[in-house]
Design goal:
Elements (H helix, E strand, L loop, with lengths): L2 E3 L19 E3 L6 E2 L2 H23 L8 H31 L3 H19 L7 H13 L3 H16 L6 H18 L2 H19 L4 H16 L3 H26 L23 H18 L7 H19 L1 H17 L7 H11 L3
Antiparallel strand pairs: 1-2, 2-3
Length: 360
């Protein structure tokens, strides 16, 4: 991507996409995005602009005067639909980047989500809360806890004055508040927030759903940091079991499909016919691999738990990341079961091994 230097005419105020300071550079592709420096352009490009550059021109160009009221309403409806699609895209991308640990890159995506949410819903709508939460979590990851507190305060206030706020939004809000308290070392407050997260997520999806598992995962992390490792191990095992059941369903469905369709969670049926987006893909990878990294050399985790974890990782890699890594995990699962003489029904593990062998 190239940039045009600008000499702003008197009275024309162009602002940087990231910091809202005076801009002196222009994106030469969309020509409707401006920056104060090449550094901010690069951050924005990595975070979101590369994906939305071609979509911005019709969104930032004023609707032309038209002869009929019907045509005007049609164009307004078209613009509104595009803005809502942009909100979904930027929210998802921001969340995905957070799960990948790319906290700085998540900020531009969240800022775009916030701007489009304000344009569509206004300044006081609860629809702004998801963007505030992504910004808050990104700030936590960057160590900017005071800034995170500001974003979360705005989110809490908006939720508080919205009596019919969706439980899924409350769940996410409590989760990020828990992350902030954990980052501050306030473990008791963190656990309270995660309990509220789990409660509200369960209201929407049930206690054994992957959408609820994130709260349990972060709760286990707190118990582990507090030295309550047995409690942490038990909760980690429940998280693994939840993802295992979902991934079994997905891979069982895929065994009857052509190999060319087995590339992504996107547009795949899961529990109850649901679909996982890219952010949930990244969440599965982040959580399951974090548990594996923590437990692979930990004898106290238990051989049976490790077999389930390795089987689940094999399912994940079969579905998303390729068969060679899946082969390694499934073989490790069988080896551990054999070495520890575990009395387990390994038919599902063996079936997956045979399925992978036809693909690798």
């Amino acid at each position: 991507m190239s940039l045009n230097p600008l000499a702003n005419p008197k009275g024309v105020k162009l602002l940087c996409e990231l910091c809202q300071k005076p801009a002196y550079l222009q994106c030469t592709s969309c020509r409707v995005t401006y920056y104060c420096s090449e550094e901010h352009q690069k951050v924005d490009w990595v975070g979101i602009h590369e994906k939305i550059c071609s979509l911005l021109l019709p969104l930032r160009t004023p609707i032309p005067l038209v002869s009929s009221e019907e045509e005007r309403k049609h164009r307004q409806a078209q613009l509104l639909n595009r803005q809502k699609q942009m909100i979904d895209m930027t929210r998802t991308e921001g969340s995905k980047l957070l799960f990948e640990g790319a906290h700085e890159a998540a900020v531009p995506a969240a800022l775009q989500a916030l701007r489009f949410s304000i344009a569509v819903y206004g300044l006081s709508s609860v629809e702004l809360v998801p963007a505030y939460l992504v910004l808050g979590e990104a700030s936590i990851g960057l160590g900017r806890l005071s800034q995170a507190e500001e974003y979360l305060s705005q989110a809490r206030w908006t939720v508080l004055k919205t009596p019919d706020c969706d439980a899924a939004i409350k769940s996410k809000m409590y989760r990020i508040c828990g992350l902030l308290q954990a980052a501050k070392g306030n473990f008791s407050e963190a656990l309270k927030n995660y309990a509220n997260d789990i409660y509200h997520a369960a209201l929407v999806s049930g206690p054994k759903h992957v959408k609820t598992s994130g709260g349990y995962f972060h709760m286990a992390n707190v118990f582990f940091r507090k030295g309550q490792t047995e409690t942490a191990h038990n909760i980690y095992s429940e998280v693994v079991n939840t993802w295992s059941e979902m991934l079994k369903n997905v891979v069982n469905l895929e065994e009857t499909q052509a190999e060319s369709t087995l590339t992504s969670f996107v547009d795949k049926p899961t529990q109850g016919g649901e679909i996982l987006d890219e952010a949930q893909e990244a969440e599965a990878i982040q959580m399951l691999h974090a548990i594996y990294d923590l437990q692979q050399n930990n004898s106290n985790y238990g051989a049976a738990n490790m077999v389930m974890l390795l089987h689940t990782l094999a399912l994940l890699h079969t579905h998303l990341l390729g068969y060679l890594k899946a082969q390694e995990f499934i073989q490790d699962a069988l080896t551990i079961a054999q070495e520890n003489e575990l009395v387990l029904d390994l038919s599902a593990v063996e079936n997956l091994k045979n399925f992978i062998a036809t693909k690798a």
